[in-house]
Amino acid sequence: MSRTLLFKSFIFLLVGALLFLPLASHADTDKDLNKGNPEDKKTYSVGDKGGWWWYEKEAVKPEPREKEKKLVEKEVPKHRIPNMDDYIVDKLWNMHPDDFQALLMDFQKEAVREPTEENVRDYYVMQDIARRKALAFTHVASYVMQKYPRLNVASAAPLNAPGRNATIQARHEDTVNVLRDNKDDFALLYFTAPGCKYCDAQNSILVYFVQRTGWNVKEIDVQGQPDLAARFNIQVTPSIILIYRNSGDFFPVSAGVMDVATLELNLTRGIQHLKGEMTPEQYGIYEHQKGGIFDPESILKREY
To answer: Which residues of 130-142 are buried (b: 16+ CB within 10 A; e: fewer)?
Structure first.
């Protein structure tokens, strides 16, 4: 073989080696990079034409989709099962009433749920403590009422028969005295209507009232004097209006049929109100009760 042919063959092999070297390097690199996680093949392999080999930043993998939260059923709270061994009598005796009542109900429910001898006994132990606590309060209340008579309503409203009779007599005297002392300063307007059956019933009551007290009563027909009825805002018949002669003020007494006792009581209170002797806060009391335990305004002047 000639020297020229050998030289050409050497050049050919050298060029081929140089051309094959990058491909082999790529293959080795690709082979090495593809080891491990199969998912990396997609990111760094030459075939994908992506990743750092192609001077691109690594692709950010998408975050996995968050799993849907499952609805967790709330666990039903267990009912409290009381145990008498957990308490001592001193603790139960001094327990706040709200806490004691709740605990008592727990013992009751447990005794109903499982009526064993022990559960039922524990419930009645709680009942016994509650009864004794109530009895202690009752005894102390009796002691306080006796020691501080001004707090005891029984002094002004006794429950025994002699005391009740005395109370009724005092109320009657209050009413009679007020009506007697003010009959010349006050008068009654009595509004009626033709054919009013209720007015017929009220007529007989007013006749009896006039005979007892000597009061002046003027009857007014609402159909004959509609302007006067409108002035006093009469809506129903019979109606009775109290007139204060000295001032011209008036105050309603009744609308509809009213018995003598209620009529006299309403008149007494209306008179004292128009004269400024009774405030609306005192409207439900009698004259002899002013300043006493049933007078709301007396609390401002009272010392305990």
So the answer is: eeebeeeeeeeee
pLDDT in tens, 272-290: 999 999 899 998 888 888 8
Q: Point out the residues of the chain with pLDDT beneath 70.
A: 1-77, 302-304
Neighbours of 278 (CB within 10 A): 19
Angle, CA of 243, 246 and 251, to the nearest 5°: 25
Can you tell me the distance from the alpha carbon of 193 to that of 5, in angstroms, rounded to the nearest whole number?
153
Give the end-to-end CA distance of the chain in Å, rounded to a whole number. Answer: 144
Rounded Cα gap, residues 215 and 183, in angstroms: 6
Domains of the chain (ranges; CATH) run 84-144 (no CATH), 161-289 (3.40.30.10)
For residue 32, the 8-state DSSP code is H
State the Cα–Cα distance between residues 215 and 218, nearest whole angstrom: 10
DSSP assignment of 246-283 equals: TT--EEEEEES---HHHHHHHHHHHHHHHTTSS-GGGT
Q: Which amino acid is at 49?
A: K
